[in-house]
Amino acid sequence: MFAKLKEHPAVGKLIAQYDHLPKRDQQALAVLVVAIVLAVLYFGIWRPAAGFHERAESSRENAEALLDWMSANRPAIQSLAQSGNQRTTSSQISDGRALMSTVTRSAGESGLSLNRFEPSGEKAIRVWLENVPFQSIAAWIERLDEEFGIVVDQASFDRQDNPGIVSVRLTLSI
C-alpha cells in the first residue's frame, strides 16, 4: 500500500523535498507531524468520545435517581393521580350563569379586562381579550383550571407588535 503511495507524483515530490532538507529540519518536521497527528487524535476523536461518554453516564445516573425516587414515592404519586381525576373545587359550577360569573370575576381578580364575552351552549362561554400580556393569560387559565375546573375547549392567540402581548379568543367550559 505504501509502495503505491510513494509512486504517486505528488508524494514523490514531497519525499524529494524532505530528503533535501538538513538533518535538523527533517527531525523538526518529523516531530511536528507526530504532534499534529496526536492533536488530531486527541481533539478530533478522544475528547469528543470522552465527553459523550460523560454525558451519557450522567444521563444514566439521573435516570436511575429519578426511577429510585419514583419507586420510593409510588403510593404518593398514585394517590395524587387518583385525587387529580376526582377534582374537588371550592365552588362547584353547575350552569352557564355561574360559569359566566366565575369567569368574569376571576378575570377581574387577575387584572384582566374582558373585551367581550358570550354564552356558548349551556356549559361554555366565549371570551375575547385584546392586547394583554401572555403570562397573565396563562396564569389566569391555569387558575381557572385549578380552582374551578374550567378548561379551555378552543383557543386562538394573535401576537401583537409588542413582545409578550397577545389578543386572545377562548372558549371555556366546565
From TrEMBL:
SUPFAM superfamilies, sorted: General secretion pathway protein M, EpsM
GO terms under biological process: protein secretion by the type II secretion system
Keyword match S-adenosyl-L-methionine: no
Primary location group: membrane
TM spans (from-to): 28-46
Compartment(s): Cell inner membrane
Pfam family, one: T2SSM
Keywords associated with the record: Cell inner membrane, Cell membrane, Membrane, Protein transport, Transmembrane, Transmembrane helix, Transport
InterPro entries named among the record's database cross-references: T2SS_GspM, T2SS_M_periplasmic_sf
Function field: Inner membrane component of the type II secretion system required for the energy-dependent secretion of extracellular factors such as proteases and toxins from the periplasm.
Family: Belongs to the GSP M family.
Name used for this protein in its record: Type II secretion system protein M
Protein's organism: Marinobacter mobilis
